[in-house]
Amino acid sequence: MSILIAVSDNENPLVKDVLETFKAELPEREFVLSGDLFDRRAVSYAVSWKHKPGALANLPMLEAIFSLGAGVDFLFKDERLPDVALYRVAQDDLTFRMSEYVVLQCLMHLRDQRRFDLQQQKHEWIVGSTPPTASEVRVGIMGMGVLGTDAAYKLKTLGFDVAGWSRAPKSVPDIPVFAGEDGLEALLKRTDILVSLLPLTDQTRGILNLPLFEKLARDGKLAGPVLINPGRGGLQVEEDILKALDDGILAGASLDVFDVEPLPENSALWAHPKVILTPHIAAASEAVKTAKYIANQIKLLEAGKDVPGKVDRSLGY
């Protein structure tokens, strides 16, 4: 039986790293690439990242599909997606990288680093007022899964006043977690820095919009509320972010993901003085580590053991 690797671009150098790692970890298996000629009846597993719609159809022996990342929203865009078990990456490497990004951006906004960057370009030496301490700044994390929980604890270690929100009630030791629609409003009212680590589903698409920004706290120690989105580009309404920044509803934003990627050259986000922009690198895990993680998922599955990262199709993540 073979394993199909289905990605958007077979020429991407990372594909070679992934393929070589899989062959080393699962030497008894044959690996095939989408777009090549292969026996579709021999494919037992598929490993995918933004594959072309229909690329996973007509695989009669397919048992499971493994995402090469933490996200699986791209899978559900495929109307011909086979009805088999789905798994995503939930490894420590990815989790820790995401937390590093979140902590970095919270500190950047806490210490007003964007202002100093702009001053440096102009050769201006302006000290300004003393920033608040981390303990005086309230961080709200939307999405308290593995990523959100790890980020919450690391921010708390630095002294930030951290709370979270999840779709359903969840208990996280030492971190208050709000739930449901009413809980979201309660979280927003006590949030100076909003971090979005939600999965992208039909329910969450476009959730980061102007009405939501208007519910953020107005009594904080920062110049105003701040948005940090390293989660999914489809969560945010970019026109609303720009309006909120220009109208003073948001004082700043750190954006790593966008609805259209690469971000179009004519986007006003590129040059906005209140925006820190990065090219979807917040949790860019190493290809080799990711391939090893998925190879282990396959080994656990074949051994009849619990496999981490199983996707609940009814929830979309």
List the helices and strands and how they pair.
Elements: E1 2-7, H1 13-25, E2 30-33, E3 43-49, E4 64-67, H2 73-76, E5 85-87, H3 92-110, H4 113-122, E6 138-142, H5 146-157, E7 161-166, E8 177-179, H6 180-189, E9 193-196, H7 210-213, E10 226-229, H8 238-246, E11 252-255, E12 275-277, H9 287-302
Parallel strand pairs: 1-2, 1-3, 3-4, 4-5, 6-7, 6-9, 7-8, 9-10, 10-11, 11-12
Helix pairs in contact: 1-9, 3-5
Describe this structure in words.
Strand 6 (138-142), helix 5 and strand 7 (161-166) form a beta-alpha-beta unit. The model has no long low-confidence stretch (mean pLDDT 96). The chain is built from 9 helices and 12 strands. The chain is elongated. It has 2 domains: 2-91 and 285-302, NAD(P)-binding Rossmann-like Domain (Rossmann fold, 3-Layer(aba) Sandwich), CATH 3.40.50.720; 92-277, Rossmann fold (3-Layer(aba) Sandwich). It is of the alpha/beta class. The protein has a 7-stranded parallel beta sheet with strand order 8-7-6-9-10-11-12. Strands 2-1-3-4-5 form a 5-stranded parallel beta sheet, with helices on one face. This is Glyoxylate/hydroxypyruvate reductase A. Keywords: NAD, Oxidoreductase. Residues 105-282 form the D-isomer specific 2-hydroxyacid dehydrogenase NAD-binding domain. It holds the Pfam family 2-Hacid_dh_C.
